[in-house]
Amino acid sequence: MVARHTAPRAAPRGPAATRRAATKADRDGDLTMGLPVKGRAGVGKGTGPPTGPRKDGANKPTRGGILDARLQRAILRQASGTRDVTMREEHAGGARGGLVELKVTGWNKSKASGDADGGVSSLIKWLEKKASSRLGSRLKNVKIKKSQVEGTDLIVKVAPDDAVGLLRMNGFGWAGVNVTVERLGGPVESSGVVSSDAEKTKAMLRGVLERRYDHDAKFLNLSELAQDEELKSQHIFDLKSTASKFFPAMMRVLELSFDKLEERDAAVTSVSLANNDLVDLAAVTTLSQTLPKLQNLDLSNNKFGKLEDLHSWRRRFTHLQHLILTGNPLEQNEPNYQKDVVSWYTNLRQLNGVQVRTEEDIVRKKRTTDLPFPIRSPHFRDEGGIAEQFVRTYFAGFDNDRAALALHYYDEQSEFSYAVNTQAPRDPNSTQRSEPGEWESYLKSSRNLKKIQQLPARQARKYRGTQAVAEAIAMLPLTRHPDLASEARKWMVEAKMVPGVPDPTGASPGGVDGFLITVHGEFEELNSNGQPGKKRSFDRSFVLGPGGVAGVRIVSDMLTHRSYGGIQAFEPESFDASTEPANILPVAEPAAPGLPAGLSIPEAEQMVAQLMQQTGMTLSYAKDCLDQVGWNYLGAVEAFGKVRGSLPAEAFVVPTA
């Protein structure tokens, strides 16, 4: 077969072309590997077998990268079922015109040599498919334009950009043999121009990623990096400065390979960092930012000596299902480390190949966990049963006879208002969807002070006196609240005595003692036929004082309606539905873990709130900061100032509109 050659188009010349070339910019940004970096490089020179270009017949992780085959199967079992996403090819336009000739050798003694054509057609199909299956956003369908056999060589002709993908397959295994793919006539540049050092570095890192990526399993094998022949040839780990920059640069290349974070998460669900001599996570911490929804992670056979070495990831990887930590000194130094690790990852199913949660556990115990402070039982301080009797009576009356309720508890000095919070978080397990106009019956008289700015409008939405309150609550949709006796877990009720409540008789100018009662819960809206509709959540604050026909009157009543948010936020972890008390006054309160002696939970919470206000950090990060300095507030502020520039965006509270 005689190949037809097309002369390449001449490159543009002249001053205009020179100016265009001079103004080209690398939109991805240069990757500088040689700048000095403080701290440990982390990825050390491991002792396992090399994991350079594959010589074993498949682009699969080596046995040395994972502790054993059984654990490898466990970590990969969940890696299927995600839609295929492939890596886009980065190039600046591509050379036009001529094809590139490649020589493929080592194939003639394959298992397919018995085919009628000696396995040529099967080899070509495999080359095209494998070169097209890359990490990234866009599928690049590599097509071999022409081919011919010359002795034991297969000569193929492809477009210049396709040649880049095929050349990365050099050393891959096919049908029981390793094939060699090389260029006839010199190196290939996908852009048709000479690459800069930064571009060559990116191309090298991209090649490492693609060679270690299993497309079908969505698995990225980053084990034994210091034994990778290509990285060794680049002297990546010879200097501390280049070693410390290597992993962040590789993660940056991975990020630039995708158009969207969702596509990146779909393409890579499993990662192995086994056998890298890691003593902590400093060198590889960027993995949690690049792949935040990772499902399977292998950290086996490193040098993690204590749980503290893993702390920087304990609030990351919220979708993690399988984790391997075997072969680390941690196992001997902290024999009970598994309990802490399991608590860090609420979706974790397997730890070191052992099941720690079932799928039913995940569904049944879907709740807020690993909070900076334990969820405490309600603080309910009553006297003479006044507060409890009020709560039981009030909500029964609100559901059944609001007119009578208004006459019973509200007098001419009572005030009532309500607001709608349409931005409140929804229950992650809820199947309800937002619908147009779903708040229409509430918004007309809503007193949401973030939305209502004018003073007259605010005053008009505050109702004072028995008749005004009765008319206001009558306008709200009909409701049905959970039964306080049989469904106590759906309520959060707190009460305490407060001084200075206005005395309606005027006998005590300084006021009298009363109650502040806060209620959080849920209700169902009922239609005109009494049938249930939307489920919503509410928050309500009452100030009670003496007076009224029942001896108790409502001084102030503020109600907030919001979308159904579930009960996870206020359900104590120790709650047992099988022994649910017919009482709204639970008294058990968990102890404060990790707090210094003499520091109570309320005091710690106040310190965290103050640090959040001063620094803008989230609750979790503020608590971590105080933890690290032994709950010394001034020390926490100083520590924040030193690391502020390196904190991720998620460490700060996002302003709400």
Task: Quickly describe the structure.
The chain has about 650 residues and is α+β, with helices and mostly antiparallel strands. It is about 30% helix and about 15% strand.
Topology readout:
Elements lengths: L14 H9 L45 H9 L22 E6 L14 H13 L13 E5 L2 E6 L1 H8 L5 E2 L2 E2 L1 E4 L13 H15 L1 E2 L4 E3 L7 H5 L6 H17 L4 H7 L2 E3 L14 H4 L5 E3 L23 E3 L5 H4 L3 H8 L5 E2 L2 E2 L3 H6 L21 H15 L1 H8 L5 E7 L18 H4 L11 H6 L2 E2 L1 H10 L2 E3 L11 E10 L10 E15 L5 E15 L5 E12 L37 H15 L3 H10 L4 H11 L14
Parallel strand pairs: 8-9, 9-10, 10-11, 11-12, 14-20
Antiparallel strand pairs: 1-3, 1-6, 2-3, 4-5, 7-8, 12-13, 14-15, 16-18, 17-18, 18-19, 19-20
Helix pairs in contact: 5-7, 14-17, 18-19, 18-20, 19-20
Descriptive notes:
Keywords: Cytoplasm, Leucine-rich repeat, mRNA transport, Nucleus, Repeat, Transport. Residues 602-655 form the TAP-C domain. One of its GO terms (biological process) is poly(A)+ mRNA export from nucleus. It is found in: Nucleus. This protein has 657 residues and is an alpha+beta fold. It is 28% helix and 16% strand. The strands form 4 sheets. It has a 7-stranded mixed sheet. Strands 14, 15, 16, 17, 18, 19 and 20 form a 7-stranded mixed sheet that branches. The chain has a 4-stranded antiparallel sheet with strand order 2-3-1-6. A hairpin with a 4-residue loop joins strand 7 and strand 8 (219-221). The longest helix is centred in the middle third of the chain and has 17 residues, at 240-256. Residues 1-13, 15-41, 44-67, 76-96, 188-195, 367-371 and 573-591 have low confidence and may be disordered.
